[in-house]
Design a protein that fits this description.
Layout (H helix, E strand, L loop, with lengths): L3 H34 L5 E9 L5 E9 L7 E9 L5 E6 L2 E3 L1 H10 L4 H6 L14
Antiparallel strand pairs: 1-2, 2-3, 3-4, 4-5
Length: about 130
């Protein structure tokens, strides 16, 4: 058995890399859903991204604030995934997001440049940052 370990090591490392790649993709998809679910004219600030209730769930906790001086409200979204990074369902503190709303979000928003630009967890390039 010890002789097999060196032969299996590259395979095991490859599987671990795939899993972390899938986890990153799932977190990205769930993060990108946040601005679409947040109330209009609010600023979104990520609080936490982590595992949900099952191994196929990702939970994003965030805060939204409207007018200056208005207290931020904490909210959350849980994204349920199928094989790989296939988004199967969403739930928020207000209940499940399904039907046409989920279909439209998946089909026409999550993979767009607008979703990438609104992603509250995306690193902005120096040219994209506002001058101090």
């Amino acid at each position: 058995m010890p002789a097999l370990l060196p032969a299996l090591l590259p395979t095991l490392l490859g599987l671990a890399a795939c899993e972390s790649s899938v986890d990153r993709q799932r977190a990205l998809i769930c993060r990108r859903a946040v601005p679409a679910l947040a109330p209009p004219d609010t600023a979104v600030r990520l609080l936490r991204i982590g595992a949900g209730a099952t191994p196929d769930d990702v939970r994003v906790d965030y805060a939204v604030a409207g007018r200056p001086g208005q207290a931020a409200r904490q909210r959350w979204v849980t994204c349920r995934f199928g094989p790989g990074a296939e988004l199967l369902g969403l739930a928020t503190e207000g209940g499940p997001v399904n039907g046409a709303r989920l279909f439209l979000l998946r089909q026409y928003y999550l993979d767009t440049p607008e979703a990438a630009a609104a992603d509250p967890g995306a690193e902005k390039a120096p040219a994209d940052r506002a001058a101090p």
